[in-house]
Specification:
Elements: H1 2-6, H2 10-13, H3 17-34, H4 39-55, H5 62-69, H6 74-89, H7 95-105, H8 108-121, H9 138-165, H10 176-181, H11 185-206, H12 212-246, H13 248-257, H14 265-280, H15 283-301, H16 306-319, H17 321-326, H18 331-340, H19 344-371, H20 377-395, H21 406-424, H22 442-445, H23 449-464
Helix pairs in contact: 3-6, 3-18, 3-19, 4-5, 4-12, 4-15, 5-16, 6-16, 6-19, 6-20, 9-11, 12-15, 13-15, 14-15, 14-16, 14-19, 15-16, 19-20
Length: about 475
């Protein structure tokens, strides 16, 4: 959605396709892994539930455990902070700076012609709207809102029902916190997803955007998207049962309990997840391999402490995202390059340095700092942000001087933004050829002498840089 919607604006603001791909890739992957309402949460809750079964916590809610691990996922939080700091400062280094310099010096006509050729050759996917379909925000916001609202309401109502069924002696108070504590989060999420797709189905049928046959085809294609993580989860459960039966986890825990200091375990788990996820390109597969071993080991090394267990589980789920962001064989990497029209080699060359720095900072300032007791989880996040800011100030030069004045940026943004909306109505908005002047907009295309001098200075600064 983001790649196809915002790609026409790149030439208008002189943003490189490499930077666009990096931002879209990081935000799309890490936010989904951290969101309590996404396709990722069901898989992660399943892994946590399996760990609870291994260590004997049969009455613990895996959804609450999922929420407890969020503050210990230092890698996704660090790479998100890196993107925000980079966007705010405009400072780049390494291959990304070279890509930004090329975008700043590129001719608008060449970029527009290339985009036109790409749009002509682009074929809609199985879940893409047909040309001319009106794109309305309510058709996305209402189903997502229904998923979140129904899931939360289901957890509250389920938790209150569970509390009411407990013996009167020792029954906890029927409040929101206890309701979430005793809620069956998996069932609530299932009902929330059902409410979401029923809402979406009702919207498209009532507006006559799709026929019933087309809507069911889209629903079937959507189911295909979750088959792979479902199979991975089933195989991970099978692997966990095998490991439990042969006693692998107990053997590793007994072997390492005497020689492995507890403070180093989360950092070691993160590092192992970095390597495995980069090699296999799948965070789901990485978690399936590591989770059955980490649970009993963390429970044994940490002496059964819940906070230490959550730190190790957070390190597992956070470190497993590393490969999804920078592995060339990851499915998210392939999807990013297809959606943003950025070459795979270009994307890897510009993304890996930034991701590696964020991963190193998360390892040292997050996992190790918290493990050594230098700070808590919140302090570790602050340390990571401060370290990333220092890295950007130390390695990155001043922002590139783009050769666009404010008036021309506004004009090009207006023109580029008109293209997608024209396509929504089934019309193609003609692109302005390089060097063409619109007589009706003299101020947008004919800058005065002062603006021309500013542009020349910008080009000169860029050449010097």
């Amino acid at each position: 959605i983001v790649g196809n919607s915002l790609r026409p604006l790149l030439s208008a603001v002189r943003l490189s396709v490499e930077k666009f791909a990096f931002v879209a890739h990081v935000m799309g992957t890490t936010l989904a892994s951290l969101s309590p309402v996404s396709s990722w949460v069901g898989l992660q809750i399943g892994y946590i539930a399996a760990v609870y079964q291994q260590i004997g916590w049969t009455h613990a809610d895996p959804f609450i455990g999922f929420l407890q691990t969020l503050r210990f996922r230092f890698f996704p939080l660090s790479v998100l902070a890196f993107v925000v700091l980079n966007a705010a400062s405009g400072r780049d280094f390494g291959p990304m700076r070279a890509a930004e310099a090329r975008a700043a010096a590129a001719e608008e006509g060449e970029a527009a012609a290339e985009e036109a050729r790409e749009e002509e050759a682009e074929a809609p996917g199985a879940l893409d709207p047909t040309p001319g379909t009106p794109l309305r925000a309510v058709n996305a916001l209402l189903p997502f809102g229904m998923v979140m609202g129904a899931s939360f309401l289901g957890m509250v109502m389920g938790g209150l029902a569970h509390i009411g069924a407990l013996p009167a002696l020792g029954r906890p108070a029927a409040n929101l916190v206890n309701a979430l504590r005793f809620a069956d989060s998996v069932t609530a999420l299932l009902w929330g997803s059902v409410a979401g797709w029923l809402t979406s189905l009702t919207l498209v049928l009532s507006q006559r955007l799709l026929s019933l046959s087309e809507a069911m085809d889209a629903w079937t294609n959507g189911i295909k998207e979750v088959l792979e993580p479902t199979l991975v989860l089933l195989l991970a459960w099978a692997l966990g049962e095998v490991i439990r039966d042969v006693g692998t986890a107990e053997f590793i825990a007994t072997s390492l309990q005497a020689g492995l200091p507890a403070w180093s375990l989360p950092a070691l788990i993160s590092l192992i997840c970095y390597v495995i996820s980069f090699a296999c390109g799948s965070s789901f597969g990485t978690m399936g391999i590591v989770f059955p071993l980490v649970g009993p080991l963390a429970f044994s090394v940490g002496g059964g402490e819940a906070r230490f267990l959550y730190r190790c589980l957070g390190a597992t789920m956070g470190g497993a995202i590393f490969g999804n962001v920078c592995s060339p064989i990851s499915d998210t990497t392939i999807l990013t390059t297809l959606a943003t029209r950025c070459g795979l080699a270009q994307h890897m060359r510009t993304t890996i340095p930034y991701t590696a720095i964020a991963g190193l900072v998360a390892l040292v300032c997050g996992d190790l700092a918290v493990g050594l007791g230098l700070c808590g989880a919140g302090g570790g996040i602050v340390l990571c942000v401060a370290a990333l800011l220092g890295v950007q100030l130390a390695l990155a030069a001043r922002p590139l001087a783009h050769s666009l004045t404010h008036s021309r940026v506004q004009a090009r943004l207006s023109h580029a933004a008109a293209a997608p909306f024209g396509a929504m109505r089934g019309k193609r908005v003609p692109r302005r050829a390089a060097g063409h002047t619109d007589d009706n907009a003299p101020h947008a295309e004919a800058p005065d002498d002062q603006e021309q001098q500013g542009e020349e200075c910008g080009v000169a600064d860029l050449e010097v840089g």
